[in-house]
Structures are given as C-alpha cells and as structure tokens.
Amino acid sequence: MSIPKPTQNCHFASSEGRKCHQEDRVTWHNGLEEVKVGAVAVFDGHFGSIASEMASHIFLYKFMRKLNNSIEQSSNLKELLKSSLVTTIIDIDAEFSEARTQLLLIFLLCDFNFLLFNDLHYSKRHRYTGSTAVVALIYNNHVLVANVGDSKAFLCSQKKISQEAGEGAASLAGLRAEELTRDHNVHRLDERARIEASEGVLKFYHDFVPLLMSHFPMTRAIGDVMWKRYGVIANPEMTDWRSLTSKDEFLVVASDGIFESLAPQKVCDFLNEVEDHSDPSLLAQQLIQKAYLEGSSDNLSVVLVPLGSGDLL
Question: For residue 76, what is the enclosing H or E element?
Fold first, then answer.
C-alpha cells in the first residue's frame, strides 16, 4: 500500500487494529489541477483489499478525466463536480465487476486445478470482496459528500456561545458533530425495501445489523458482485453542497472501525478536549489510538481536515 503524505490541510492516520490485515485505503488531493477543489476519499475493503486498493488507485484519475472532458461545456461547476463524482464511483464499481469476471475466466481457462483446490480462498477473496466509499469534495468554502456503505464523514463545529455571566464570561461549549452520511443497511426502511424487492433474505440478530443472506451487513458497496442480484448497489448517496463557516473546525472522514467504539460526537468531544492542535497528523494518530483502546476490533483509518484556518486548499 502506498501511504499518502500529510499535507498542510489534510492529515491521515491508519492502523490494522486488532485485524491481521489492513483493508482500508485512503486517497486525497489538495487542489485538483485547473479546478481548485480538494478531494478526500476513504475506501474500507472487506473480504480482502482488492476492491479498496483498486478504487483508491484509480479514483482521482477517473474523477479528473470526467471533469476535464466536460468543464468547458459546463456553466455550473458545482453540478459538474457532483455529477462527475456520482458517475466516477459507479464506473469504478462496473470496472471492478468486469475485472473480477475476466479474472475468473483466466483461472478457468489457464488453471482449473488452481480453482478447484483453492475454491474456498477464491470465493472469499474474489467473489465476495468489496469496499465502502466515502468521498468529500471541498470547493469555494463548500463541502459535498458521496457515500456508499458504512464509512462516515462529518463536521465538528463550534457550539453556540454561552453568555450566562455577561459578555466577559462568554465561552465555547465544545464541538458539535454534524453527520454528512447515513449508513447503508436494512435498518433504513428505504434500503430494506430495495433488498426485499430483489428477493434478498435477511437474517436478524440481537444487537447487530441484520445480514443479507446471513452474511452481508450493507446494502450498498463497490464490488460484492455476488450480492448485486439481491439489491446491493454502488450508487452513492449524495449530500447537497453545504456552506462552511468560521464555526466549522474539522472535517472528519473515516472508516467504520472508528465508530465501533466512538460515535461521531465522541470524536468531536475528543478533538475539542485536546489542547494542542498544532500537529493535526499527531491528532489523527491519537484518535486512532483512542478508538483502539476503547475496544474497536476493526481496521482504523481517519482523515482530519482542519477548517478553522480558512485556508482549505
């Protein structure tokens, strides 16, 4: 895995956590070529890192190619950025699915014995592999988020100022989490309806997300070719462009391992309690460590984008 280097306004930390392998992948860019837009993306792989690795390597290239092909004909850059992001994620899913099918044909034609004697390994690592995708774009002091799966993006913003004892005693009450994504699982009635309409069978467990066909916890993902017949899709759910203000301190984009032990509000509380924000890269590492110590059992990846300076890109 090639690890992106920290930049002035984008800081990354990642850990295998309690798992044996790291399946998360992260990519970003501060100011994409001719368009002054920042992009942050987290891909959380499952049943291997094949899908997350592919998505992280080709996302920026495919996204910028779509922009460059259409920017001269577009009169609304925000709408172009949004539509390009949607089609990029859908295209990555289609390309991965096609590549998986071609790989299967190669194995069948070239080495049937390999497929025969490694069927269990193959089925887990190739037929069922997939990835979440959460992508945040920052353009002209606005943020837009696309989400597929159960990774998250949210803002940590200053709460209202309290002035109980007069103007001289005014103080900030901390940071408030504003979630920009919603998890894709069958707890959501709209997602469940699509799965059931595709004859997907759900297995319900106490205190756990219901599983599709007793195996899969999400209703949207890149890859996961075997689950697409049961209504799993890769179409991203989009926010509207949200204006950033001086009260917005951090944009947080992270894989779901963080949220096994820390809710978004707990993340904002942690960021608020840390006195020294001079090294956001260290802050990201400390957040990873806190999630681990609080009991997370998954891979852990987070990108912190400090917003308070006003110089976003």
Answer: none
Question: What per-residue confidence (pLDDT) applies to 161?
Answer: 64
Question: Which residues of the chain, if any, have pLDDT below 50?
Answer: 1-7, 104-109, 112-124, 165-171, 310-311, 313
Q: How many CB atoms lie within 10 A of CB 242?
A: 14
Q: Round to whole Å and give the CA distance between 68 and 72.
A: 8
Write the single-letter amino acid at 273. Answer: E
Compute CA distances 88 → 21, 62, 67, 152, whole Å: 27, 6, 10, 19
Rounded distance between C-alpha atoms, residue 298 and residue 18, angstroms: 6
pLDDT confidence of residue 125? 55
Q: What is the pLDDT of residues 171-227, one digit of tens each?
A: 457 999 999 999 999 999 999 999 999 999 998 887 778 899 888 899 999 999 889
Tell me 10's DSSP state: B
User: Radius of gyration over alpha carbons of the chain, in Å?
Assistant: 20
The pTM score is 0.86
Give the whole-angstrom CA distance, residue 269 versus residue 265: 6
Measure CA 20 to chain center: 21
Q: Please, which residues bridge with residue 306 across strands?
A: 250
DSSP state of 216: B
